[in-house]
């Protein structure tokens, strides 16, 4: 995983090539760069020595001595105190919460205004249905098209939910341009327009992304005041908190926000980050609600979708089967939604003709989808059968309503007041309206969330779930008009409670989370239905998880982000598969005493990003791992024109003095490397923030052993010998090579007097030299596994440490390698057969019945395998036996 | 970390030596033993070959063919299906939930009966105050004394909360006898008696322990039906779920239970275990509440301490400062509670005379404490000023009451009905009662929780917090009789809401958790006060965490359990300390070509449990790690009488045949080891469950290279050469040596004809031989760190992987070692100066102001350090430079 230099703008969301780089949890240096930069700065300061460090505050003090010194002193002390405080976690979290609450509130306000405008337009034109229709359809189409175009132009990374990407980022992968100001602006404006259009789109996912960008920008801003925000590990922790803030201030649900963000983004969660999430999310939710009070929307802080269900007898025990039915049905529904959503995306991509057409007219697809959906929801048209004029928020408010709409199956007994009227149709009853609403919204939502605008799917699914719950609730109410309970008191059934349960269950099924239960409690302000909600959510999860990946995992797979699938529910065979069954045995390696030619061959022979460095081909003792780019750099530095010219000059000057000057070069190298091996690669990498304060340092010793000087020889290496190499090699190396090639031309003209044949000869000669690893960046402790490590444990370690590869060793000797790819294959192979492919319903149940015999055969095969392999390594063993064989 | 053979019963809870063994997360074999056992079983089955495997169900079928075959077939199929299902996670979780709900309910019932009995006795004797007092005091004293004695005799491990132990166990440490049936019985009965006494004791912690024991026993029981429960990793996951069940069914709070158990027991939490906890806790809470309905206690499922606060305007924004005050005060109070609790324990231990006396009369201390506390709560006595006659449950119900007790500061306006009457004293007002209650209960709870009975501190603290909140609430209500809000509607202040906030804040402060907020919502069934509760809990946590460790961490430190302290809030210096600053450089190691004498010296020279195995002293390339016990086994096998007798016999038979027979022994060893290195050590360890099915296997090859044969030579090694060794060495090795010494005597009598001088000579000769490592269990991939790894990262990796040591390497070469001890020192050194010592209040704030200059000096020192150390290893470098120095 090379440098972060490549900034190739992504061109289309369909074929977007996601560039990523693995960041380090273990054994690599990038994490320590912040510290390194500080050390470096300290060294420079030491070098400056006698020249006094400029202390800005005191300088300022001297200038302003005349006027009101004590006041100034006080102000300066305050300033200094504040700056020292800026580094504290809680200051950052409070600022993050504050900013996000303001953003959230402002966006809510803008969205409400947009929706109001549409309603006003629609209402004002009630004399002419055609005009009304035009207004109803044009308005969202324009907004969505604008949103799509705007994000497309400014930052295509802003498209979609953002949760899949955040999940990948929190795993330690750096996605380019995902946390920049440009993306932030694109996402905020794009999302506001998209939601303002009234389409069935959500804001939860985008809010997670927005909050993360907020955190990234804020930490970059605050690092102006001090170096506290340069540590990558800390920034990852802050991002995890930001995800919680995103959900928290979207729903004013701090607890649910924290839990949801944990479930959705993490595999292993550091409990020490827990308070961060709670702190920031609570503060954010608090400010968000206070703003509503301050704006006189509310009298005091209350829940967003407050319900007023009966407290003393919220539900009867005998209603629980109905709740369980909601849960199971929601599980199937959720899986179907994920499936449908993925199929739509895949269909759009597979149809070459459609795809090519849409590529050209990039805004046509959003416009078309919006047109269809808004036409169908047109209230005087088909919309009247599906409460089309209600916004998402109004829909939820009505669905969570305390009253029972259908009494004894006849809907006309009940007075529909206010916005409730939308559900009432004179020629049909409320059941029909609800069924139509659910069916239509289901495919509309699945379709709408594929539009390339910033949008999520949580809220639409939540609404559908609420409607489904309401439908079941109303049916129950119609079936048992006086409640089920046969006691003295009549406790009627509360269909609103069913709606709450349905909302939690369906959204839980789609996202594979349990915390939607907590979110609904916080949203409605009532926890009385805790048991039905929990039961339904767990059942929905059980069903959905056995059928489909979660919506976010599905998107991760579609976008081909680097991920590690979860281990399924209780698959025992996981414990029986071992590393030796899945590892790659035939790996290329670099030996300590190899020649440059060997490096060249290794580079051509493999695509691995990290090459193992072993002591010798005989002993195979693993010493460390070296990055592919480093190997390339070693090669190019050996074949650099500069070195060639140096040799040439030396030859010309004196054949005898050759030995002397060569050793002086060697000396130069070794003094440089003795200042710490991470120093050199760090300087070579484009790490702007870390190196901002040491601008003069790299200029001291430019030429020797550096990768920045490559000649035609390298060109030949890259282009002639292996035409495929440049595409295989990482973008950075390629870029560097290109850039360098141009800058080298002048040097060639100036000093190069060797013929191409001579150069080739010289290079052949150079390639036969032994490799000098002293200037290479070697990871001295790459992660090692043992052959017997189980797949389950390997998965745990990979996800715990965010690894992308590990070497398999046996008593120091390298025997194989496992990468994310092998692991993924092993897991998916046993999980679903063919990756994303849908499993037949209830496959998990069938699997488990067959598991006993299967496990037996696996065990047998393994035993056989192990017996076979165990003879092999012992033959090349480290000689422990041989030593003792000499008799005393 | 040696074998688990030592079962020395713990004698006193004061000086109890906790024996523990590190289990593996990484690179060791124990985890794979389940699988190994299966493989072994498969191998045995293969060996049996032609003899048909007995299939019990079909055999049964044949016997009963005559009677009603189809019915039997059906039953058998059902049975087979059920057995196959037993391995599923959800079956286990449902069973666990069911069992725990039943246990919880039965215990609640027993406790309620006990309390009822006391009340009845006290009520019945109201004619005579002295008799009444006797009854009031004797009853709890007897119960507590019985509880203390019972647990002491049956299982001293059952004493106390159990959460600290569970935290340690979940970190991967095996605590002996902590999850056995005996401990389960002791804990259940002891806890029932202790809580039935009416002392201020809690049941949350013990319930976590009980649930974990339930899970352990259940998995042992279910493993009778199949091998699914032999995997240690899975059992740990199930234990984590069990902790959630414990809290969940204690309070009927599934969500809060899961979160609380995560916060309290985990450092890194696997999100894939999340659903397990939710599933089991929900089921358990459901059954627990259903039992209450079934018992006609309740009409339907509701919250345990249901509140009926006003929903439409739960609190005013301007009341928030009062809630914040509750939070901050609770933070200080919580820290004080932890401090007080620890000081009492330390005082009891330090006072030698008291201690010796109490050791003798072990039941005196519990009786004395109970006597004091029950005397003070005697209702006609001092108890009348502190609502002494109320049980914990009644106290909570009254504190969460919806009414305002004090109106305009005059308490007589309000009619105290029912149990509320206890708070009303004719000659004092409710404020005095509350203050007295809080003060008295505070020290009583801190004292009572040190009694050696199974008990927790959560509930007492929760009650005190509720009383404190109520006090603030009543004061606010007296201060603003018509509410703060100056609008048309008068919204009076709800003191019950304050009580809820106070309860959550104080219990959160003591346990350092945020999830108490969720627990109160679930307990009260109302979420309307979410923001005040969250704010107070977070503030309380902030204050308490900066002052004191959590109650559980405090107990962990007192009990000296193997733990890793948490990194504090935003201590930036953590990022600047590196492994090279804290690692031990001077470590003993074993080389591949060393002699047995070297092993002896290494064993004498170090106390490390794991010794690094390097290639040679020159190269220092780390090949693996070898356990101390393994080294001891190698030595004793080399010096074993059996080997000596063999040599003797060979000498006697023929001097020429010597070479032949020695090589035949060698052959025997190598065939054995070629069947997989984990095989041998696994057989040697006392792993009963894993090896139950392979009883005949270890008997095949008893003598060669085994550790079970030790002679007087070994005795001299252990006793003469180093008198301190036996105490230093692990209990297991010592035990083994003792046991073996006795069994060896007969062998000596039978065949040993060498004089002691000859033996000594022979042994000296043996010690000069090269070590044969082929029979030793070597961890082929011990965990490695780099010198530059930051303390923060090291901490993360240690707690992620549950390590207790890691080697520090530099390009394959061993340069140092970090153990839990160094890490702990480094963290505590920077956190608190001297471990448990209390930091001055607000130390964190002072720290941060000084951090900038401190960081600078640290950076400088580090730079210097790094420069120094980098020359050192390069001199002994792996020859990369040297090779290239030869000019072409």
UniProtKB/TrEMBL annotation, chains A, B:
Segments of this protein annotated with the region Disordered = 664-683, 688-707, 867-888
Q: How does it sit in the membrane?
A: Multi-pass membrane protein
Keyword set for this entry? CBS domain, Cell membrane, Cell projection, Chloride, Chloride channel, Ion channel, Ion transport, Membrane, Phosphoprotein, Postsynaptic cell membrane, Repeat, Synapse, Transmembrane, Transmembrane helix, Transport, Voltage-gated channel
Q: Give the reaction(s) catalysed.
A: thiocyanate(in) = thiocyanate(out)
Q: Which SUPFAM superfamilies match?
A: CBS-domain pair, Clc chloride channel
The question of whether Transcription is a record keyword is answered with no
Question: Which spans are transmembrane here?
Answer: 90-113, 133-155, 238-262, 274-294, 320-342, 363-382, 430-451, 458-480
* Subcellular location, record wording: Basolateral cell membrane; Cell projection, Axon; Cell projection, Dendritic spine membrane
What protein is this chain from? Answer: Chloride channel protein 2
- Source organism: Sinosuthora webbiana
Which gene is the coding source of this polypeptide chain?
Clcn2
